[in-house]
Batch of 4 targets.
Target 1
Amino acid sequence: MAVVGWIGLGNMGGSMSANLAKAGHDVRGFDLNPAAVAAAEAGGVKPVRSIAEAVDGADVVFTMLPKGDHAKAVYLGEGGVLAHADTATLLVDSSTIDIASAQELHDAAAAAGFRFVDAPVSGGMSGAKAGTLTFMVGGEEGAVADATGYIGPMASNIIPTGGATTGQAAKICNNLMLFINLASTAEGAVLADRLGLDKQVFWDIASVSSGDSWALRTWYPVPGVVSTAASNNDFAPTFTTELANKDIGLAISAAEDTGTPLEIGRHVQQLFQQLIDAGESGKDCSMIIKLVDGSLETSN
Ligand code: NAD
């Protein structure tokens, strides 16, 4: 069994690290938010008080942080991973971050003598809990193979994507499609309701028809249809609007770099921006349905 350092115990990292603990690994978890640490402790993760403590003696360190700036602070900062870990420790960043930041982490890790992979995930909070995430892993072949050995208890699919930053590239494109699907699901759900269809009957049809998608099956934005959906809990976040806006922004900036027109993606980003402007950045991104049914009440 391995010693695992885990940094970032939020909606995703809390459950992912708990699955490694359940698999018998000695997992030491750190987060700035005491409530996140307490929840992870209940899942079998040993709480520690600093990054230095989390990485001390670790075979592998995982990070699951919101954005590129958080990941850079955690790896490159004074009290950070590169300053405190042993170079024998394998470093795995599972956060979804921009390609430039991911490249910076690969370069800094290599310059300091570490093996580092970018390994973002898909599958949402429900997949994190169930240990059924898809990992897309980019980096040097040997490091990717070693990371795969640790990822098993958290994943149904582990897919090597190629060299440094290709995991992030795959994730950014996947999430562009996810959020477009989410917006289309919200529009279909509201229109179905207004045409007099029962919500469950319409979902039963769409989920076995050509309107099907992961967003429909996991995040259906109408309450009382799908058990994993945030719509059942007044849109308490499983994936915040702020993070969704970040992800679609990563796709738009990658599109600008490559001269790719993303007309639908840009429109969906405007919808997330409307939710953020209305003071709902911390709510679940499936709240986008309120822009379709007209029920958004601003909280700022
Ligand atoms: P979250 O905000 O719930 O969790 C992030 C955690 O990182 C927080 O608990 C925060 O306190 C902690 N953190 C921030 N800076 C830190 C630091 N310097 N040191 C220690 N801890 C720090 O976010 P999440 O939903 O778990 O998402 C994490 C990443 O995974 C994001 O990049 C997101 O885009 C991606 N992701 C999320 C989902 C989802 O459904 N929520 C799915 C796939 C990928």
Target 2
Amino acid sequence: METRDLVIVGAGPAGLTAGLYAARARMDVLLLEKLSPGGQVLTTDMVENWPGAVDGITGFELADRMRDHALKFGLEIQMHEVTKLHADGKYKVLDSPDGEIRAKAVILAVGAQPRKLGMPGEDTLTGKGVSYCGTCDGPFYRDQVVVAIGGGDTAAEEAVFLTRFAKKVYLVHRRDELRAAGVLAERVLQNDKIEVLWSHVPLAVVGEGGVEAVRLKNLKTDEEFDLATDGAFVFVGTVPNTEFLRDVVDMDQQGFIVHDRNQQTSLDGVFSAGDCCSKLLRQIVVAAGEGAVATYAAQKYLEDHHE
Ligand code: NAP
């Protein structure tokens, strides 16, 4: 069985930064990714809060640059989906459909994915008008009407992005104040194509073979009605990609991995970084910072436990 000093799982900003730091430290490191490097950044149109990118940078370009930066210092990236992790004495064993890899230390940077609402019609109409990515699917709605659901940074950013194509965007939010950062909220409120439906919740997606309406409830009046639309975009937060780690490392109630200030999880020698972690703020810059800390902590762990 192949053995590495450090295996990083996931090639989003956290994993790629961890990989960059490990490669620069000349560690024996391997990064495993199931799809293509970039993570959720790939579904972001424009990143405006990456320090130094004064004019913004597309998510695609930032992901590309992060990957190239790590590769430049010799990081090895292999495409494997890790399906299991377990401890074996001083080692950790990572299973994938392609075989097992043994590591002395592991960094889990497995990211998160859009959360579903679980409302009737949502699953059956996903890909037929229900979407979780405006950046990916927005161009299909040129001159049409769409509904976006949520009030956080993603909902605000994506609602504004959707106005590039749709003639009208209804933003449905369950409260009467957006959670989104000030500058993003301002853009929503100043955009003539966006109408915010405050204090409304979605009950169902309605349609046969395609989205025809979203059934809404006005929380102030209890009125229920169908809002006609061509597409329904759901932006109500994220769920961590940690299902395969259940009973392996401690998690919070939502399944986000709990770690200490050095990114150390409950399993010795296993660190976590990025959007899969339990924390207050999920941002690219935070993920990158955690990736750097995780690698440094892993390096110290290896010196103390494996030399
Ligand atoms: P989020 O911050 O968790 O916001 C989720 C939104 O969905 C909230 O407005 C929430 O309402 C609403 N919501 C949740 N469950 C709902 C339900 N069952 N029914 C109706 N509405 C529901 O998620 P996010 O916007 O995807 O952001 C995730 C993380 O990524 C955040 O840390 C965010 O800062 C970060 N992010 C940053 C940027 C950026 O910096 N440019 C861009 C995108 C994402 P309430 O407000 O009432 O809770």
Target 3
Amino acid sequence: MKSKSLPLIIGAVIIIAAAIFFMQGGDKTAKKSGDSSQPIVIPTHNWSSQIVMAYVIGGIFEDMGNNVSYVNADSQAVYESIRIGDVSISHEVWESAFGKSFTTALDKGGLLDWGDHEARTLEDMGYPNWVVEKGLCPGLPDWTALKNPDCAKNFTTPDSPDGKGRMLEGPQTWHGDLIPQRVDALGLGDLWWVKFAGSADALWAELSAAEKEGRGTIIFNWTPNFTDGAGFTFIDFPPYTAGCRPEDGGDGKCGSPDGYLKKAVHEDFPKTHPGAAAAFKKMSFSTSQIGAMAALVDVDKMTHEDAAKKWLADNESVWKAFTK
Ligand code: TMO
């Protein structure tokens, strides 16, 4: 009995081993690079380029044989989540909005600076060019034009307290009271009030509503974005200097910095996923590439996932180079 069942057992072991080997066929690259089969956790936030790029990078990691999962995360708290290892990476660390949370996590330990994208960034208040072409606020983009009551009155909306001009800021989760503080610090508080939008989409809806109603509009916006080259101008506030913001002890009388766009990883990521970590270190997107990712959603109205698939299909030579 014993001598008869032994070949059967050996045969079964070989078949199971072969089955496991073939089942892992799709995993070849990851195996070669030594990446764990544990999912790489990629955060999604609430502006289009970031979400599209999450799926673009996830798609690249998957092409390398990795497993990926996505988690919707608060764009400030995410750096602590990366530091403690709940989230693997961040692919859009915008200096103006998130530099402080990023640096805090970096200093505490557990998060690594994984380099900059080629694109530089600006996140600030601005206006569509027709606002100036219609003569609604002569003197823009110099911020001192906002001191003129004849300018402010062209920006009032029915919800404006005391008929003040309205500035539509992004969601408060992006940078707290930065803009209301600045408006007050610059002595503009008697003429202007700052409303927070509930979403990025509300900013784009405001652009078309204001144009239809023939009233001026000032909104928070950023570059790279789909509005690059589409007739949008950022206001020239007094220049940013290190420490000028109230949260850094300054008087708040300053605009936003010419900022970096960084990547970050949890400190164990290069050990658990050396192949993906090396590719992510090389990843660098330009202003026009990031603007295009946003435009696929905000202009062409694609879903974020479909936009990422299209971007990957159209730019294979760009991203394949990161994986080598
Ligand atoms: C972080 N953001 C790009 C919305 O300014």
Target 4
Amino acid sequence: MIYKIFNTIAFRLALWFTGIFTICSGVAFVLFYFLATQTIQSQIDQELLDNASKFSAIIHRNGLVGARELAVVEAQAAGEKVIFFRLVYPTGEVFASSHMFYWKQVHVSKNALQTLVLNKNPIFETILIPSTRQKARILYSYVANNAILQTGIVMDFSAKFLSAFKKVFIGAMGFIIVFSAVSGWLLIRKALSGVATITKTAQNITGSNLEARVAGTGNKDELEHLANTFNSMLDRIEELVKSIREMSDNIAHDLKSPITRIRGFAELSLTHEENLEDYRGMASNTIEESDRLLDMINTMLVISKAEAGEGEFEFKKTNLSVMIKAACDLFAPLAEDKNIDFDQTIEEQIFIAADIKMLQRAFSNLLDNAIKYTLENGRVSVTVFKENNLITIKIQDTGIGIESEYFEKIFERFYRAESSRTSAGTGLGLSLARTIVRQHKGDISVSSRQGKGSVFVMTLPYSNLEVI
Ligand code: ADP
């Protein structure tokens, strides 16, 4: 469970969020701490320099005697524990000082004196008073030609301030870390809750239940977009699964009849004692049914291969007009049998790059349907023309027609409209025709009125020649 939480995006983002928040706050605190120490120290330094100026003024007015008195008085006024004054000659010999009981461990630094004698500029030092463990700021400065003032002040206030600041800092950092971790976790969890909903929906979907959909958040954000994309993907999958189910039902149905018939012939030949002629008839019926089955399976393979882009099409420059005429000649007797008026208007010399055998198969399927689904004394007309780089092959009939809701369905494998179930057929013809035409970068469309007739239009790009 804990391992699972560690692996979540929410946990990792919350960790980042807390880390960045803590680092930023830490940097801000450190900067503030540094600035505060600098300001306090420069205030103390200024106070020490002001004191040195006072001593120089007094010496100027009253001589060293005045300075001696000032040292005692000033130290008493500010507190002898807090401040001291020591007046020394440049040699280091002390000639006056305030009460030094609390400062006896603070000596005159020889190094500081030497540097001061050389440079004349005031010198500051920060020292630790060993007995009280307190920090003190010391100044060495000339107050007269032959007199140097050593004065020191405890940094008590600044130490207190800084230790209070440290406590606030630690407390505040603790609060910031907890607050940023909790608020970050909650915020990120809320932001990612849409992902959890999508995951839950996906988990609820099984092979038999594809109806679940993710509810939108209502905000036009990335998650809403993801939910919509997920839902439309589910719509497509549902449609696909439905069509696969329908197709397998159709396949089962269409394979069942010829196999039952083949079985029937075999049974008949076992149970009845017939003469040789009858056996021959049964054998030839079996072959016919088997051929039909094989033809169906081969057609299915051609469609699947072509749809998967693995079709073995051989494109060659051919005269389309000649191919159409030849196919029409082949079907003319069929039309004649039904006393159908078969009319052809075919533009001459249309050359295209095509697998002409395949294209002939596609055209024949359309023509075969037109004659098959047209009642006796009807009319079928074929028109072929080229216009604006587009070749149009129109097959029009006055047959039984198709309801508009099935215009797309009839191109699916094995689909056969209820009204045409009485005629022979596999339901593969249109599917194969469309696949072949699409391999030639063209398409087939249909318009029809039930009981009035249909028009199938096959279009092919004339620039198809460039395919070679
Ligand atoms: P079939 O072997 O059933 O003819 P097709 O794939 O060629 O298979 O056609 C699919 C279905 O489309 C047919 O079963 C029929 O219902 C409908 N159809 C095709 N062509 C026509 C047409 N010219 N007139 C009416 N219905 C048609």
